[in-house]
Hints:
The structure holds 2 protein chains of 2 kinds. By secondary structure, chain A is mainly alpha-helical. Chain A contains 4 helices and no strands. Chain A has helices spanning 3-34, 39-59, 63-81, 88-106. The two termini of chain A are 18 Å apart. A 5-stranded parallel β-sheet of chain B has the order 2-1-3-4-5, sandwiched between helices. The two termini of chain B are 15 Å apart. The interface between A and B is medium-sized, with 24 and 21 residues.
Amino acid sequence: MTVREQIRALLQRHCTTIKAQVEEVEAALSGVVTSEDHQAASIRVAQGLTHQIKGTSGSMGYRETSAAAATLDQTLKALLTDTGSISPAQLQHALDLLRDLQRHARNASPEASSLYSADLPRLEK
Amino acid sequence: MRREIERLTYVEDDPDIRAIVEIAFTQIGGFNIDTCASGAEAVARTAAFAPDLIILDVMMPSMDGIETLKQLRKIPELRATPIIFMTAKAMTHEIEFYRSLGAVDVISKPFDPLTLPERVREIWQQAQEHKGQDSP
């Protein structure tokens, strides 16, 4: 298998990973919607996941997915540092950002990664 | 003194990142690499591999990168091996904190895996130069 083939096979696998990770974020945030008692814990879980998606998807060449995850990550972090309960407007904003992240995850394909057609020979020693 | 980095231990719990970095380091960088999926794995076998450099992900379950560094430093053969942290938490104060623990540098996530071998080579060279300056 060539280096390019290895990278493309990995990208194929990573598309499945992105979708599964975003589903986990959705599940965590649904806990915020249904139970006020566990809001902070659910947000902490969702924030940890978005933080991971930001780093992983960006390093796999999915810059837009990484950027969408970073925006949601920052929003959730801010919610965790705020005192008191989360307002409906704050929660709606987080859910809107989740929709954006979900859209990127749905559209993730190996070809969408910057690594898919990256110039490899210039780096080979 | 050896002029080029040859052997590298890479510790990362995320399987996709581990795989792309392994491709980059071996196929593009030409390094001999030992990848570990956890800090515990690294502590158990890094001394035997005898790397020129160790790269640690900071956020890992069970034993994180900081604890892994502390454990590795207890192993006599690894006391002076340069260590790089890799993290998505790379604010200035966080980078200073990682350096205070003994890391030679910090690589932010996300990173470009295809240029990572060159970046690591540069960091290693700088670490070698500092080591040379510190020697009598």
